[in-house]
Design a protein that fits this description.
The protein is α+β, with helices and mostly antiparallel strands. The chain has two domains: 64 residues, 2-Layer Sandwich (Ribosomal protein L11, N-terminal domain); 85 residues, Ribosomal protein L11/L12, C-terminal domain (Arc Repressor Mutant, subunit A, Orthogonal Bundle), CATH 1.10.10.250. The protein contains six helices and five strands. The strands form two sheets. The chain has a three-stranded antiparallel sheet with strand order 1-2-3. Strands 4-5 form a two-stranded parallel sheet. Helix 4 crosses helix 5. The chain is elongated and about 55 Å long. The termini are far apart.
């Protein structure tokens, strides 16, 4: 029958918009779908995650939970609501390099990088725009250290 794509707060989906109105005309019980989404996303609570609701011709559904946005994972690690208002001049938090690797592993399948080291650079790029430092130093210096092999033992 089709696929419905929604962005939901993990573990807190409800039958209101956008889920309920999209499912109503299809004859699918919205609460069954909401319960399935909440069960599948309970470990990611506090993060918005993309979800695909796939409906077949027999009015059966399956749920596919996508990977949260990189910025959402960074905000969760830092326990903050939003990044810097002025990128490059404001610092909102500091992560360890181990936390960068943790985020890179969580996002690895969705990134274009060929390996974990390159994926870490992608995560660092997002950190830079959000006003996040790593191990107390600027992202520019972290990337320089990464290129020089300082963090190679972590991969």
């Amino acid at each position: 029958m089709g696929t419905i794509k929604v962005l939901v707060d993990a573990g807190k989906a409800n039958a209101g918009p956008p889920i309920g109105p999209a499912l109503g005309p299809l004859g699918i019980n919205a609460m069954d779908v909401v319960n399935a989404i909440n069960e599948a996303t309970k470990d990611l609570e506090g993060i918005q995650v993309p979800v695909k609701i796939i409906i077949d011709n027999k009015k059966k559904f399956t749920i596919e939970v996508g990977s949260p946005q990189t910025s959402a994972l960074i905000k969760k690690e830092l326990n903050i609501k939003k990044g810097a208002q002025k990128s490059g001049t404001e610092t909102v938090g500091n992560l360890s390099f181990d936390q960068i690797i943790k985020i890179a592993k969580a996002k690895y399948n969705q990134l274009v990088s060929k390996d974990l080291k390159a994926s870490s650079k992608e995560i660092l790029g997002t950190c830079k725009t959000m006003g996040v430092t790593v191990d107390g130093i600027s992202i520019k210096d972290v990337i320089k250290h990464l290129n020089e092999g300082v963090y190679d033992s972590k991969f």
